[in-house]
Amino acid sequence: MAKQGWPEKQVKAAVGAYFDLLKAQDEGDWQNKADIYRNLSDRFPDRSVKAFERKFQNISAVLYEENLPYCDGLKPCFNYQNLLRLVVLDHLKRSPVPVQEPHTILFRKLRELKRRGFLPVAARGSGRYGLTIEKNLGIPPNSSKSPDFMGIEIKTKCGQSLQTLFSKIPSRYTGVADKADLVSRHGYDDPARGRRALYTSFSSAPDSLGFRMKVRGDQLVVLHGGTELLEYDAEVLEEALLSKHSQTFFVALAGRKREGKEECRVESAVYCKWPSIIRFLRLADAGGIFLDFTLSQVGGRVKDHGFLWRIRSETLPKLYLKTESDSLGEA
After folding, report:
1. What structural domains and CATH numbers belong to the chain?
2. Can you give the pTM of this predicted structure?
3. I need a labelling partner for 269 at 20 to 30 A (CA). Which of 31, 46, 172, 194 fits?
């Protein structure tokens, strides 16, 4: 027979124990969570140790949704009963927890992940590192474009590659008709894959294919040799910056393979707030901003993996009005 929903007495006991643990954590008093679960299970034998652990994760989820700090090692689990939320909110009214800025909470969670060392990579593809960090933070999978953690976007990077800021199609094509014409005229043959391709990364300095960009008033223009090909309006780039990166954590990772499986470890993080389009254009003019073409054509069909705007990690502080870096302590 399936168990009934948790009665109020059990919920209140779990909530009280959770907030005692959170207070001890904030005071630097390490407590064994397994002992807490066992003590609660002894009081309520119809609930297992694992059930109380899960309930603690549910409490973390309520606090996460309220943009409040939650216990280390208890990532949010969002499928919880409504009674639990009411009891948690009632507890907060009577005994408020110290308010922290979301970026302060996230720095602490990333320090916790770094202490755990190498983590199994959770997926495949270019987004696998970000998904791994989100999974270990307890952030639910989300296909929307909303920020990842309490209103903060999280961007991960493993290795020395450029950091992607956003993908944005041109405001208009000028020297070519469209992206198909761009590949047809300025791409190269890729016989190994039976396609015509245009994969390159360039700044205000020309790349090996002759592409470069320049700032012209409130526009950013892409040229091939002396011919203008396409334009971006500054307001379009600004909208992309503000919508994706008004607050962003850029997290650097180390990667390795162990027994044939990929793993990654949190290394450091930079918190950035308030990007400036003026600074963006200034960096672009100085060669600090890069645009990647990732286009291929088979027959008449063009595959587009994005017009990617990217930046070197060490240049990030020059793009934002406020930055805060943290090595996150020793691994």
Report:
1. 8-94 (no CATH), 153-326 (3.30.70.3570)
2. 0.85
3. 31
